[in-house]
Design brief:
- The complex is a heterodimer of chains A (about 675) and B (about 300).
- With about 675 residues, chain A is mainly alpha-helical.
- Chain A has three domains: about 210 residues, no CATH class; about 290 residues, no CATH class; about 80 residues.
- Chain A has 27 helices and five strands.
- In chain A, strands 1-2 form a two-stranded antiparallel sheet. In chain A, strands 3-4 form a two-stranded antiparallel sheet.
- In chain A, a hairpin with a 3-residue loop joins strand 1 and strand 2.
- The model of chain A has no long low-confidence stretch (mean pLDDT about 85).
- Chain B contains twelve helices and one strand, in the order ααβαααααααααα.
- Chain B has one domain.
- With about 300 residues, chain B is mainly alpha-helical.
- The longest helix of chain B has about 35 residues.
- Classes of the chains: A mainly alpha (about 675), B mainly alpha (about 300).
- At the A-B interface, helix 16, helix 17, helix 21, helix 22 and strand 5 of A face helix 2, strand 1, helix 3, helix 4 and helix 5 of B.
Amino acid sequence: MSAIQLFLLSVGFFGAGALAALLFRPAASLARWLAGAACLAGSISGVLCALSGAGTALNGVAPQTVALLSIPPFGNLAIALDGLSLLIVAVIALVGIAASLFMLGAAPEQASIGFLTNLFMGAMLLVAATSNTFFFLVFWELMTLASYLLVIWEPEKRESVRAGFIYMLVAHAGAALLMLAFLILYQKSGSFDFNAIRQSQLAPALRSLIFMLVFIGFGAKAGMVPLHFWAPGAYTAAPSHVSALMSSVMKKTAVYGLLRVSVDLLGAPLWWWGVIVLIFGAISTVIGAFYALPERNLKRLLAYSSVENVGIILMGAGLGMTGLALNQPVLASLGLVAALYHLLNHAFFKSLLYLCAGSVIDQSGTMDLNRMGGLGRRMPWTALTFLVGALSISAIPPFNGFVSEWFTYQSFLAAGRVTNFSLRVIGPLSAVCLALAGALAAMVYIKAFGGAFNGPSRSPAAGAAHETGKLALVSQIYLALGCLVSGLGAPWVVPWVAAIAANFGGGPAAVVSGGWTVFPLSAGQATLSTPLIAILLVGLLSAPLLIVALLGGRRVAARSDVEPWSCGYGYRSVMSLPASGFDQPVKVTFQPLYQARRILEKPFQVVGGFSRSAVQFILRAEPLVETVVTRPAVRLVETAGQWIQALQMGDIRVYCLYIIITLAVLLILSFGRSGL
Amino acid sequence: MNQAALIGIGVFQVLLLLLMAPLYSGFSRVIRAKMHSRKGPPVLQNYLDLIKLMKRQEVVSQQAGWIFRLTPLVSMACMLVAALMIPLLAIQSPAGSAGDLIVLIYLFALPRFFFALAGLDTGSTFASIGVRRELLISALVEPVMLLVAIVMALIAGSSNLDIISREVASGQFPLSMAFWLGMISFGFATYVEMGRLPLDVGEAEQELQEGPLAEYSGPSLAVMKWAIYLKQLVLVAIFFALFLPYGAMTGLTVLGFLAAMVAFLLKALAFYFIVGVLENSMARVRFMKAPSVTWLALGAAVLSFVFYLANV
């Protein structure tokens, strides 16, 4: 099957899953099963779509555009799968596999969750593939709506309704800017179609205006500082597999949108666009890392860390955009490779961390790191997979997060070599931001891992935890393997990313790997070989064992029944350092930064006050949605089911008649088309 | 230089660093004793300690899991890999394709990550407090090292350590203000990472009973200590490869090999001597004062970057 067919099949699966969940609403467990299975099937066909499309798309063949539906003033609902779209489809589908497994195994048994998750997945896929601004916005809104309803899946919890409201507010403010930008484009080009917009002539000032609009609009959705504040609440409130999808996939559709509009549609003609993206990326990286550190709530901690990682992606994207504008092919391809590779890697490790966090939270009954502890002994597999995710996200060689950050560093070095002076200043200074954020991220994940899995159990529930269910575990192991493959297999994965970057930015694909090493276009600049490092590391683990065996000789077997040293007093588990005490030195050292946060959050406190009254309103309005939207929809489906039942008469001749009628209709349609 | 010779040099270089590391630490203990007007331990005391520890029974906290047991192995293995990547004896690094200077700096994060987790794993108060101190210091020092690395890479046109090393040794590299300031600030960062006074806050013996090491005993403690000695010497070797690569051989000759070895050992001796004198002429400061010292290093690194931009 062709890529387009597989894509439609995938969307079809999601649609069917959503419908099935709705139909079998009363039987919650069956509904969850059907929705999960459809979601899994849809994700798998999404991956297949990306694989089958990659060959032709990356060979420079212009993507085939297929018009599915035409609504006259808005043009065609057209699907076009070029390299970048295929990458995003692959990311959505790869994470979708894990999320659907986790949903099957561990999600709450609620039909609405299955319905909305499928809707969410389908909408994201369509956002990534559609090539018409009107339908892009339609799917964008559908995606926002589905995720919003998933955030408030427990409407009785005030916190989650409030978080959902803030999310909705920011998402819509962003969408309004996007709408404005697309309307200006429509007015100037006379079409909603991407191709027509590409060919339209726009004044540079107008292009810059549109760029600023989409930058803020997509930035809000991507959770870029200072528009990040919706993310921690929303991710915390959503079910874990949805948090994983929102933070590791939905954010990427925003990065995709930014790249698509500013580079592809507007042509990235001005160098300062990229610099703006770079600066906001650098700020997000540092601020995200700093604010992640003091969090005690595991999911909020992960959310802030997503802010940090989106910052890293934006830094690469900004450098790539500047490189394109300045006609510096080295900078352009390195920046894009760094951004797209980090986009892929972040999808793997962040969804892994969210799913592990989901398992931990289910088992310990709390999101508070201070009340976990000791889970490593009770949930060894979850601990191991979380560790892989933590090492990856902390950019520790030879894991995948490091490889993409290394490419980001290399693009900073490339930026330092161009003649543009401001870029030569900002590039290396942003690299310092990345280094600081890297050290802080390691601290964040030492805190998260140490707080949850190490030390003594700090609450009775944590002491009674068990390993998570099989399906959830499979999803975690699958993602951990994904991290390892994209990290240790970097020399074989990066060429694909480079081909996508070249396909998107124009020009021939940059050579970024050879043999076992990756390098920034030439091996004389720098080299990195993750497989070699891994082999050396694993091999040399034996060295200390050998030394001890040689020098130590025979000795008494080890004892492991003692308590930690506590100056001769009896040890109690409260003596261990709680997670909240872990970051105290950083809080004191960087006090001004945390004080600034309080001042900066003042305006949002005002919004917060407003939102409290809005929450009241929503709590009252929510049943309204139920009666106006959900119930009629259910009723419609049920009535439609009865109609369909009426068609099933059980007589084979009637069925033959159906087939003949269908064939006749299809024939007439196809003749009509060829006649035109 | 052919591949076989390079591998041979690599193995030799790793063994050299591994075997000499306790000696240099012993040397700094001797300097400290002399400056305190004490007789002090013999230079070889560290070796005797390590061997004795390896013969002892190991006692592990009942809270501790596999991370605690794996950490000594990871710490040492990682330092050995780093030792292999430095152009130390030859001007070409034996495992150069494994990574550039950025990789080398980031490689130190792996043992730190495990070290910190091991500290938390035991549930010991001392270990955890040591961990959080250690991590703050690394967050303050890492940007400094990276900024200097980036300035050096920008001037040399490559971030591969052996290319920078070759350019500095052959005099191609301009010995500008950027270079000297970078050297000062990288040297300072090395000093801090070596865990010396006034910044030996993580394994502070007096107040934290060696911090994250508190729960280690027997062979594990021996391996941990040895890995720390090795880390110090590896850091010194990176400093020399970046700023003073003189003496490392360019071709493969027996004489050149011996000369390179002696040159490195003498340079390291001088570095440890200076570090020892500096360390013992300073008082311990409160831990929270540490940032004010590291800001200086960051300042020097930023100045070095500014001088690079201004082309001075």
